[in-house]
Fold this protein.
Amino acid sequence: MREIDAVTTVAWLVIALLGVAAIVWGAETFAEHLAAASTRLGVSAFALALLLAGAEPEELATSVTASLRHAPAIALGDVIGANVAICCLALGTAALIAPLPFGRSVRPYAWAGIPAGALAAALAWDGAVSRAEGAVLVGAYIGFVAVIWRLERRPPTLGETGELAEAHTGRRIGIELGLVLAGVAAMAVGSLALVEGVRRVSGVESTHGRLGLVVVGLATAFELIVLARSSARRGVTTAVVAAVVGSFTYNVTMTLGAGALARPLRIADPALLRGPWIAMLGALALALALTARSRELSRRSGLVLLACYPAFVVLALTSSRA
């Protein structure tokens, strides 16, 4: 019986890993070909920016899937874990390759992530996020984009908007739209596989929370970590910072809000995630503090951020066991 249980556990772990691969491929395909398809369709730059600015579709798909599959701890843990991963690992890895600029054009957007994250933490502090609170979070993201548009009078360069420059205009529109749909399907299937794999490995809520913080969060942030490294190697360092800033705010507002709208989120032990919520806010605050004087994230500062991630993992694995 134990051998059968072990085989079953390994099988579900393999399914979860396949889900991660599908999410990464789907997110890359979706972002790349949505830009090209929208351009071919003649969609305005503003509308296209609203679709892509800061958007992490793999995060949203995973949160909504976890919520619908009655795994709220995974949905909440994913938002926190992914944001810590992108602040520590994405920025840290990219900074080892090239200094990352945190000048006047990006710092206001970065600072905006702190109150957005604090709002999410406050709403979820009691372990529950209702549909009404989810709507508030979604509205906060829409307001965030609207304010930036009003201030800048141009689409904000956040998240994956920079990938517009890589649109392949030579492809036929039918192919582009087909690949967009394929990307959406891959993310949906991958998210279901990842969440179900984590659920089947353990039915205990506290384990769901820890796996959400560490495994699911890192898995869904992996695409952005790879993108940050690739952009830094090409010298597109501003895009790295913009991607992290946009994604951080998107995750604590749109991703968490969509999960709560799909099904109200409630966990039995609110203390399970309180330390991680504070750590998430601290990760972004630390990145900003490290750039306060030089207005850039240096290689040494990158090492500091990378060193913080193992500390977060320890915190996640030793949080309340109620």
Notes: Residues 43-51, 155-171 have pLDDT under 50 and may be disordered. The two ends are 29 Å apart (CA to CA). The beta strands are 100-101, 128-129, 265-266, 296-297.
